[in-house]
Amino acid sequence: MLEKWRPVYAKPGDDGLDIRDEDRVERKLEKGLKFEKMSEVVSFLQQQKFNYRKEYYKFLLDVAKNPISAKDIQAAVSLPFEVSLTEQKGRVILVTGDEDQSAGDPGNIDRRNSSRLSMHTHPLSRDGSADVVTPSFSDVYISEFAGPTTPLLLAHAEGLIHYRKPSYDPINKQLFDGEARDAMLIYGEAHGIDVFGFDRGRLKSYFSMSHEEKVVFQRRFAEETKMIIQEANWNEVGKIANMMNIVNLKT
Ligand SMILES: [Zn+2]
Hints:
Elements: E1 25-26, H1 38-47, E2 55-56, E3 58-61, H2 70-77, E4 83-88, E5 91-96, H3 108-113, E6 118-121, H4 137-143, E7 152-156, E8 159-163, E9 168-169, E10 174-175, H5 180-190, E11 193-194, E12 204-205, H6 211-224, E13 228-233, H7 237-247
Parallel strand pairs: 1-2, 6-7, 11-12
Antiparallel strand pairs: 3-5, 4-5, 4-6, 7-8, 8-13, 9-10
Helix pairs in contact: 1-2
């Protein structure tokens, strides 16, 4: 059964895999433009018209000198595309993605899997409301590849989530140390959902679910498989500050 697995859930409109990374081109800053703070980067990106499906921007942030604030992250969530924050040599690299994927920079995958930070944002929905306030199934899938010392963080409209790969099997009520994709498969089957779109006929296809149903299903999965290490709403200042320490590489 597992041999047939393939990432068919990376369809347009879903939070897909990094399938288009290699097609994107880095958009260089105009000569003379230089940003030191994340707030400057975000205001630049808010004003910039560019095709974020085909091009990406990349910024280097010295967070020891100019720490990133929770407000900066919230502002980044309001961009129409995802952004990714990873660490390299003690600095944070911000790369823009698109609506479904967090980064266009090919080097991002390595940094995301083995650096001191692996964070991404989920943008608001088109009407400006909170959207995917949970690690998505794509995030679950790639959580498998994160190194043991790489913290995984998600910023969304309502707050921050610090998460890890699925570590509990709520169906068999036992610790889970298998592959993330298998956790999804087991969970999906137990709930009558064909998460990978195998279309065996006996299960409901994940792709036939509405966007809202998918969000609820992904959220329940993240909670029940104990992916969530800690999370906070933006107004929970203390908890947010703790997680911002991770973002600023102070842990
Ligand atoms: Zn995500």
